[in-house]
Amino acid sequence: MIKTLIAVPIFNEEGSIEDCLDSLLEVTRDSKNYNYEIACFNDGSTDRTSKILDKYVGQVKIIQSRINYGLSEVFNSIMFYAKENTFDYLVVFDADNQYPYQDIPEMLNTSIEERSDIHIGARDFNKLEHFTRIKKILQKIGSKFISYIIGKKIHDATSGFRVYSSRAIEALFSTNSFTYTLETLFQSNPFKLKVTSSIISDSFETRESRLFKNNSEYLKKSFFVILKSILLYKNSFLNKIMFLSFVPGVYLLSRFFIPYFSEGTNPGNVQSLVVGTSYLIILILFIIIFYIFSNNYQTKSLFLKLNYKAKHLPSK
Cα–Cα distance between 247 and 267 in angstroms, integer? Predict the structure, then answer.
């Protein structure tokens, strides 16, 4: 049987955690193909969540912290636990019940059949009545933008309902403090991880997100995650941008040098020579500083990953 972990990130979910765990226990009962373990990662909940989880001791694994570290840190603890316990597959399932638990076996089957390392349970945005029109547009544009940058077709870049293979469990690590969903997609290229997706049967309206207060804050945080991810994992994309940035300077210099070499003199484009030269000098200095910063950031991120110690620990 395939050793499979279902990990549930939790923070103050007293209103939904019982339904969530009852549903997961139901869908994993009497499985013939998968040896399931359900693990709850309680990220310093301050409501009745911890007391409710006590009722499930013996049925699920309780892993927790005393303080709230945030979703990215929970993801790293999940990956650490899955790696330490040598799981073949990992399913991350949100505690707010926004995703259909019935789809878990089929998502696992599809992931195995397609030999996927990251399989995304994608939402059909056109059918989500509880999403505003602006939110649907932002989700679609964002997913297409991420697809363009990483060179892989991503239907739903922000869905947290995902299946990870053992290769992904070994490789992935979140370095930002917002969310793991975007950064891990960027990591798929350097680690040669296959990303696939399938449309899930439904997605339900739940509480407001605790990661952001409004669309503006969401866009701002997502922008910085994407920017940092490009710095860390998309050097080829950066090189293209840097190459294109030389074009204005080269153009200005050509206005002086082409007539100069063809006619032997060019007193009329000295301003282009001065501006073009200044532009390229400043650009080269900027690129040097930029790459020093980028390399330092990459080194720091690698150090954090290699020396990582899980913040969430099993209950005694």
Answer: 23
Count of structural domains, the chain:
2
Phi and psi angles of residue 64, each rounded to the nearest 5 degrees, phi first? -150, 170
Alpha carbon distance 80, 5 (integer Å): 12
Share of the chain above pLDDT 70, in %: 97
Task: Name residue 270's beta-bridge partners.
Answer: none
Amino acid at 118: I
269 lies in which domain range? 235-302
CATH number of the domain enclosing 109:
3.90.550.10
Strand order across the 313-314 sheet = 195-199, 118-122, 162-165, 89-92, 2-10, 34-43, 61-65, 313-314
Specify if 175 maps to a domain: yes
pTM equals 0.84
Place 16 in a pLDDT band, splitting at 50, 70 and 90: very high
Secondary structure of 251-308 in the HEC alphabet?
A: HHHHHHHHHHHHHCCCCCCHHHHHHHHHHHHHHHHHHHHHHHHHHHHHHHHHHHHHCC
Task: Return the sign of the alpha-carbon dihedral for residues 213, 219, 220, 224.
Answer: positive
**CA atoms of 316 and 314, how far apart (whole Å):** 6
Residues β-bridged to residue 199: 122
